[in-house]
Design goal:
By secondary structure, this protein is mainly β. It contains 1 helix and 26 strands. The chain has 2 domains: 157 residues, no CATH class; 115 residues, no CATH class. Strands 4, 7, 8, 15, 16, 17, 20, 21, 22, 23, 24, 25 and 26 form a 13-stranded antiparallel sheet that branches. A 6-stranded antiparallel sheet has the order 2-1-14-9-10-11, with no helix packed on it. The chain has a 3-stranded antiparallel sheet with strand order 3-12-13, with no helix packed on it. Strand 24 and strand 25 form a beta hairpin. The longest helix has 29 residues.
């Protein structure tokens, strides 16, 4: 009787502990994690232990939004006419990289696309509150949308595909008498870190609504359109400098301002090169879109279409798009 009683009590205690852990986990998942101290990045290692970093950099998994960088006139050595041309303003110092454009995390959401080079959500690092990995190859990103944590935007993604939602952080760690070590923290890989706590996020300024656009993805399980604002072409110039421009170029020398377009639809079996273009005045033509163009007298390549979303920006490669509808409302895709 005594052994049976003890066994029963052990089982009850174990069940209570398990239920307590479950409810605590559910509650903590709904609550925003505590931010790191200003100027500090907190890494949660494999064991869940906090590693506080004062000096770090993202070596993989981010990109600079050079099209947001301030521009200054500079004289190009190759210009025979000696005219000044616009180029990104160089950083004032090695520690000042803001002039090269905001640094943003490259994030692939669950319902983006199955393409290797698919739809990217670009989230400025200074707006991120936290990032967490789970044991089922999932990743959750929490982004500040206002000064209230309850308004945070939460993005979900997967890490089971090569090169997707992976990151590398390089940090300098003081080992005392041994010296200073450069340590790499890997995210989104087996036995990698469990999460990151960022410094208090910067609240974005209230943005105007902008012109709505609804983008339907070609290779997605969810065929509902993705809603964005101010969708415009993104071009890459030499030295990997990117520029937002209002113009789409079509064969042979046709140029159309995106503001005049009502709808773009990929023609079937055209490898994404031919589009049925409907203008606001109702005119409709089938045209061949040009990727390699001259933009302000410089060679440039069309990377895709960039639009604003609550978490930052969303980049749609052309091969991932089947249709774009401007202004008219459609059902919005799942986050």
């Amino acid at each position: 009787m005594t052994c049976g009683y003890r066994l029963t009590m052990v089982l009850i205690a174990g069940l209570a502990a398990g239920l307590g852990w479950l409810f605590a986990s559910a509650s903590s998942a709904d609550e925003p994690p505590k931010a790191a101290e200003p100027g500090t990045l907190v890494i949660l290692d494999r064991a869940g232990k906090e590693q506080k970093l004062k000096t770090w950099k993202f070596a993989n998994g981010t990109r600079r939004l050079s099209w947001l960088a301030p521009v200054m006139p500079a004289k190009d050595k190759d210009d025979k006419d000696g005219k000044a041309k616009d180029r990104p303003k160089p950083p004032a110092s090695k520690n000042d990289k803001s002039a090269a454009g905001l640094e943003a995390l490259e994030f692939r959401e669950e319902h983006s696309t199955q393409f290797k080079d698919g739809v990217l959500t670009l989230v400025p690092l200074d707006r991120i509150r936290s990032l967490d990995y789970d044991e089922k190859a999932g990743v959750s990103l929490r982004v500040a949308a206002s000064d209230k944590a309850d308004d945070d935007v939460i993005l979900k993604g997967l890490t089971k595909y090569v090169g997707i939602n992976k990151l590398t952080i390089e940090a300098e760690v003081d080992k005392g008498d041994l010296g200073v070590a450069e340590i790499k923290y890997l995210g989104g890989v087996p036995k990698g870190i469990r999460g990151i706590r960022f410094p208090p996020p910067k609240v974005p300024a209230a943005a105007q609504a902008g012109r709505p656009a609804f983008v339907t993805i070609a290779d997605s399980d969810d065929k509902t359109a993705h809603k964005v604002a101010d969708l415009r072409p993104l071009y890459k110039l030499r030295d990997d400098v990117e520029r937002i421009a209002p113009t789409l170029f079509f064969k042979k020398t046709l140029k159309i301002d995106i503001a005049k377009v009502q709808k773009l639809r990929v023609v079937e079996n055209s490898d994404g090169a031919e589009f049925t273009v409907t203008l606001k005045d109702g005119a409709e033509e089938t045209l061949t879109l040009l990727r390699d163009v001259m933009l302000d007298g410089k060679p440039a390549r069309l990377e895709g279409l960039m639009g604003r979303v609550p978490a930052g920006y969303k980049l749609f490669p052309l091969h991932a798009v089947t249709e774009i509808q401007f202004d008219e409302m459609k059902e919005e895709s799942k986050p």
